[in-house]
Amino acid sequence: MNIIFNTLDSINDFSKKVILFSSIAVLIACAIGVCLISYNSAFVHEVRLYTLGSTLIQKSTVAFVQLIIAALVIDWFNARIQNDD
């Protein structure tokens, strides 16, 4: 378990900021999606609003995973470049 934490601590600051801000944005988007679905279930009962909420949750989760992978790839290339110097 310490190996995982040591590896995560070695990530550069830019990648950490990308992961942090993308996780905050995804939490906000997922909360909005859940609110839309809850509002739809309680009051409106329209398919469009439910579809909008579920699509928002799905797309924000996919974007979050893509941003994490991009941040880790940037960190990996940055580490390789620094090791070559």
Radius of gyration: 18 Å
Helix content: over 70%
Task: Give the strand content.
Answer: under 5%
Give the terminus-to-terminus CA distance.
Answer: 30 Å
Sequence stretches where pLDDT stays below 50 over 5 or more residues: none
How many distinct beta strands? 0
State the major sheet.
Answer: none
How do the SSEs run, as a string of H and E? HHH
Q: Would you tell me the overall average pLDDT?
A: 92
Total number of helical segments? Answer: 3
Based on secondary structure, the structural category is mainly alpha
The shape is elongated
Kindly summarize this structure in a few lines:
By secondary structure, this protein is mostly helical. The chain contains 3 helices and no strands. The protein has a domain at 28-80.
Topology:
Layout lengths: L1 H8 L3 H32 L2 H38 L1
Helix pairs in contact: 2-3
Task: Describe the model.
The protein is mainly alpha-helical and 85 residues long. It has a domain of 53 residues. Helix content is 92%, strand content 0%. It is built from 3 helices and no strands. Helix 2 runs antiparallel to helix 3. The longest helix is centred in the last third of the chain and has 38 residues. It is elongated, with a radius of gyration of 18 Å. The mean pLDDT is 92.
Features:
single chain, 0% strand, 3 helices, 85 residues, mainly alpha
